[in-house]
Amino acid sequence: MSSGPEHLNAQLTRIKELSGLSVRALARQAGLSSSSLSRYLTGQLVPPWEAVVALCRVVARDPRPLRAVWVEASKAGAAPSPRRNDLPADLADFTGRETDAALVEELLRTAGAVAIDGMAGVGKTSLAVHVAHRLAPSFPDGGLYLDLHGFTPGQEPLEPSAALGRLLGALGVAHPPAETVERAALWRSELSRRRALVVLDNAVDAEHVRPLLPGAGKSAVLLTSRNRLVSLDGVPPVSLEALPPADAASLFGRAAGVDLTEEEAVAQVLRQCGGLPLALRMAGARLRHRPGWTAAVLAERLRDNAGRFDSVFGMSLQQLDAVQRRMFRLLGVLPGADFDAPVAGALADMTPDRVNAVLEELVDAHLVQEPSPGRYRLHDLIRRYAADIAADEEPQADAAVRRVLSHYLEQATAYDRTLPLPQRKETVPGDPAKAMAWFDTEYANLVACFDTAARLGADEVVAELPQAMRVWFLRHRGTDDQVRLLEAAAAAAERLGRSRQRASLLVDLGFARAAAGRLAEALAAYELAGQSGSDDDELAGALALRTGFVRRDLGDLEAAQAQFRLARTLFEKTGHRSGQSQALAFDGWVTLHLGRRGEAAELARASLALAEGPARMTGLVTLGVALAPDDPAESLQALHEALRLTEVQHNKAWCHNYLGVALRVMGSLDEALEHHRRAFELLEPLAEAQLEIDFLPTYAETCRAAGRHDEALALHERTIELARRLGRPRDEERAREAYQAIVGAVPAGDHGTDSRFRS
């Protein structure tokens, strides 16, 4: 007998069959996100009961008989999404705030959102993180944390589009849409199927966080800001004041680690600290590190300083030796949000054993935070204080920052070389998973270092860092950051007089623009690369290959074929087997779409003779589709082998889509439709505009062949919409012609080619 989830999955699949709709169309009618519906249908997620009711309503079916099946499935559970927990560590000495914490918890339960506001240092982040840890059992899908840097010295606030990109990345969405509105919609959709708690720290104002708020569902959001976010509808504010005297005394005593009996002296210290937790912890740490001192001595020393914050920070600084003080002030000018010990060592030009000891002292003095083991950061107030001291006392601050830039560039280059790349002849030994994890962790800091290098005029770093992130960007391609970095890097290479490097960067820039669907801009970058005057045949081969991709996507197949054949000739001159294989494979692909199946199959076989591993994918797919009418067995063998070899999700989607095309040619229409659907399920979270506009016509043609005319029309409508948005008039025209052909109940014209391979 089927288990709970499997039984429910079978029932939901039956509902979908009864509807006769695609996943996207069924989701639209049921008021669900198509990505969530895909997960319900594949058993990855047990839907909420409301979603089951909505699906039954679409097919006019009574949902009540499914209630017992749904309950059984809910108890058994589905394949769970990995629990995400980005929250910083809770403070061990968190003190007071019982009333505030209770109010925040209650509002999260009832309203699903809270905005904590208050002055700098009052403990907004500490309270938010403390509450988030206390409520963790209520949010089984985990906790997400993002610092929006609304008030971080030397750093611009994180724009909503970039913030959404990072939040979606935390949920496994590798390629979010380009537009902020679309990212926000996808973010709400992804959260709607989860029960997660999101902490958005340091917002500038209401507009800064409005696009980041969750929609319907059981997830919740906790905001912090120095400003009251009163214009956010449905987000009640909780304003923090300084700690009352009793709580302030308790926190100070815990930080000091002693029993404080000198009431008047303690009261003086508390007044100097203004009831701010940050200042209280630092003052207590100062007393703890001076066993011979009394509270009265501390109060006297604090009175000798003019400013309240400077007095507390200055007292903490006085407990450090010269090396520790230098490290502290240099941390004020460090690019990025957080750092590890090697970065701090590069900053201060310090040996690893010494830097760890120094960081421990700074953590003990509450001048540096350690939100997770081995990762450090400074509170914004303390960072400002450290930066001010560095401006006065550290004439070599720029040199220290440049050491950090060099450190990040060296690390990125070393990790990048361990990662496979189609045009790379060989990689160096290393753990690719570790390398990708490093890039994931350090990505925001790498971007901050790039911007700092641009500000300092460090063109060497500006030109080289994006190339050291090439493989990471290949998996997160077409992002705003990638395009921006590559544009600046190409300009830096030009200033350095490096024509070859500039051309290479322009080739990468063109690829990034093409991945975002900006084909005319991609061609412009490639044309600039071709004008570089470089006589590097290997680079020229890569340029011809990438130009061929864009010509192919624009529908100019003859021009694409000419570029692929030029690339093959250039790669043959350099002995670059992988490049030759790619050029042959894509030559075969366009030859297939020009209607010459036999020639396409021969080109694909020649490609496969040179390729190894995942690089065989394009040749196998080309061969499989070319052989579909005449040799179904070999066709399916090649296509399934291609699918087995793929490691990247967008490649898996490509293989499934063209398995659907081949199966349509063979007459296996139901099976073909399943592969098309699977392709779009994989494509859904990637927001790959170029692949979507490639897949839609092939899926529509299979729907038309299967007599599913409404689905085919909906797919053509989507193609028209997407082509118009991307500025692709030829794709729009073809989709309109296919649409009218269905409406007129006459076969669509094949434009002189075999219509079974139309794409």
Brief description of this entry?
With 759 residues, the protein is mainly α. The longest helix is centred in the middle third of the chain and has 25 residues. The two termini are 43 Å apart.
Report on the structure:
Keywords: ATP-binding, Nucleotide-binding. This protein is mostly helical. The protein has 37 helices and 8 strands. The strands form 2 sheets. A 6-stranded parallel beta sheet has the order 1-3-4-5-2-6, with helices on both faces. Strands 7-8 form a two-stranded antiparallel sheet. Helix 10 links the parallel strand 4 and strand 5. The longest helix is centred in the middle third of the chain and has 25 residues, at 432-456. Residues 78-82 and 746-759 have low confidence and may be disordered.
Which helices and strands occur, and which strands form pairs?
Blueprint lengths: L3 H16 L3 H8 L3 H8 L7 H10 L8 H10 L7 E2 L12 H13 L2 E5 L6 H11 L7 E6 L12 H11 L9 H13 L4 E7 L2 H4 L10 E6 L11 E3 L5 H12 L6 H11 L3 H12 L6 H9 L4 H11 L3 H10 L9 H8 L3 H13 L4 E4 L2 E3 L2 H14 L3 H20 L15 H25 L2 H10 L1 H6 L4 H16 L3 H17 L3 H12 L6 H17 L3 H18 L2 H17 L3 H14 L6 H11 L4 H14 L3 H18 L2 H15 L5 H17 L3 H18 L2 H15 L16
Helix pairs in contact: 1-4, 1-5, 2-4, 6-7, 8-9, 11-13, 12-14, 13-15, 16-18, 16-19, 17-18, 17-20, 20-21, 20-22, 21-22, 22-24, 24-25, 25-26, 25-27, 26-27, 27-28, 27-29, 28-29, 29-30, 29-31, 30-31, 31-32, 31-33, 32-33, 33-34, 33-35, 34-35, 35-36, 36-37
